[in-house]
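Narrative of accomplishments. A recurring question from our advisory board has been how the design workflow behaves on a single, concrete structure rather than in aggregate. To address it, we present the structure tokens for one chain from the evaluation set, followed by the sequence designed for it. No filtering or post-editing was applied between the two.
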């Protein structure tokens, strides 16, 4: 579930949102390196089951901001410069760089080279980066910011469309003028992993604990999970919030869960903190039957920190994880492109796959527009796509309707690595697809930013 991947607002240091003056960030530009290319397309522009995503052509004309005869400038936002966690979500920049290098070597999009400006929001400067992108970029593609609620009015005010890798806040998750390859609707929740746990551990759901960080985005997700648990008939035995700055000791949480008789834990937050919590649980000699957390734990670092204590951690993913690359050609191609263009990049981080899917969607829409690349044409083309898998990187989604994917798979963490657990029954390739795996929520979890709120309408988009 994508929104749980992005609850990296639970970070290892405190922070405040900046609402002051614009501060210029260190933007970094990626275009073709020129090495090994002839300007006419030096390689295949096919990806997964998508054909000729990129390639040569005769597109021309300065048809919109950021578009020239020869190039299209777009922006990508991420937070790797955040001082409290250097490299935070660097995979968004890495996946974008790999896509741009690969696409440009294949000939660009209809012959136009992509120029990607990496805009580092450093966690607290999202609004400033949006303001800069408004002045220069054609669109935003393949990125996301933890504090994305701070710039939605500015983005809509300058009519800057976005195809994000992820979004966190309610304001962003259902904002207008955005097309999402993997939507995370506010009124729906994928519950495939919860259904799996209920089937595999039927005697454990009468004593469930809930722990989340003390920031708004994760508190919202925790509330959604608790609503789903209640709908499934689970009984809550314990709930707590931890300090997102970090806890000096996780033992009090472990002891409290032991006292409450918690059998299974639903955790929303940063995975290294979870690993430390589970170590504390093991240290007092207590055993949980299972732990459910978000896809951001699909990272070898989680296992390195937690060791054997992470056994029995389950996550739900709509993205084919890297350890299944041999079974999924698109995943293998993605990893191969990293080997070719950015061998030291964060190739196996889940958000990178989301980013690459965003770029593929962008390129598909731009190609459809031919020479007349305008924001309205590209946005209309992208938002008209009703079935999307990123070439096979992830489960089918419906960007047009912003529906939560109906397919996913359960992954289990062990001390030796990640596996698909016994008992998980796939119906379509590696995924299990079921309308019943997505729950309609009744709670009020906020609403998205609108064009009307900033005095604009979709008719203003050119």
């Amino acid at each position: 579930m994508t929104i749980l991947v992005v609850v990296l607002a639970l970070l290892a240091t405190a922070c405040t949102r900046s609402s002051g003056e614009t501060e210029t960030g260190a933007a970094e530009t990626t275009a073709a390196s020129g090495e090994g290319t002839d300007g006419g397309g030096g390689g295949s522009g096919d990806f997964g089951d998508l054909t000729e995503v990129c390639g040569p052509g005769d597109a021309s004309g300065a048809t919109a901001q950021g578009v020239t005869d020869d190039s299209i400038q777009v922006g990508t936002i991420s937070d790797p410069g955040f001082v409290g966690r250097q490299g935070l979500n660097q995979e968004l920049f890495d996946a974008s760089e790999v896509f741009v290098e690969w696409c440009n070597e294949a000939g660009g999009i209809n012959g136009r080279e992509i120029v990607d400006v990496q805009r580092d929001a450093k966690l607290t400067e999202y609004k400033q980066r949006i303001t800069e992108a408004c002045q220069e970029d054609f669109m935003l593609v393949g990125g996301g910011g933890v504090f994305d609620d701070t710039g939605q009015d500015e983005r809509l005010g300058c009519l800057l469309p976005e195809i994000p890798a992820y979004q966190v806040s309610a304001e962003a998750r259902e904002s207008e003028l955005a097309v999402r390859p993997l939507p995370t609707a506010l009124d729906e929740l994928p519950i495939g992993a919860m259904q799996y746990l209920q089937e595999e551990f039927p005697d454990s759901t009468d004593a469930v604990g809930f722990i989340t960080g003390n920031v708004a985005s994760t508190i919202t997700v925790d509330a959604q999970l608790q609503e789903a648990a209640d709908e499934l008939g689970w009984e809550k035995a314990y709930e707590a919030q931890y300090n997102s700055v970090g806890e000096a000791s996780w033992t009090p949480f472990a002891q409290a869960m032991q006292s409450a008789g918690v059998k299974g834990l639903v955790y929303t937050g940063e995975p290294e903190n979870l690993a430390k919590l589970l170590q504390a649980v093991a240290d007092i000699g207590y055993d949980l039957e299972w732990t459910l957390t978000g896809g951001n734990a699909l990272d070898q670092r989680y296992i390195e920190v937690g060791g054997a204590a992470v056994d029995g951690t389950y996550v739900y993913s709509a993205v084919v994880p890297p350890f299944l690359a041999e079974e999924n050609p698109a995943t293998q191609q993605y990893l191969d492109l990293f080997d070719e263009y950015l061998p030291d990049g964060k190739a196996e981080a889940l958000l990178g796959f989301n980013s690459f899917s965003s770029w593929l969607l962008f390129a598909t829409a731009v190609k459809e527009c031919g020479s007349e690349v305008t924001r309205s044409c590209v946005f209309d083309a992208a938002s008209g796509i009703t079935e999307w898998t990123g070439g096979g990187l992830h489960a089918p989604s419906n960007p047009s309707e912003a529906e939560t994917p109906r397919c996913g798979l359960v992954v289990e963490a062990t001390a030796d690595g990640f596996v698909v657990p016994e008992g998980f029954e796939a119906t379509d390739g590696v995924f299990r697809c079921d309308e019943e795996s997505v729950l309609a929520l009744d709670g009020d979890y906020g609403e998205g930013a609108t064009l009307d709120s900033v005095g604009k309408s979709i008719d203003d988009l050119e």
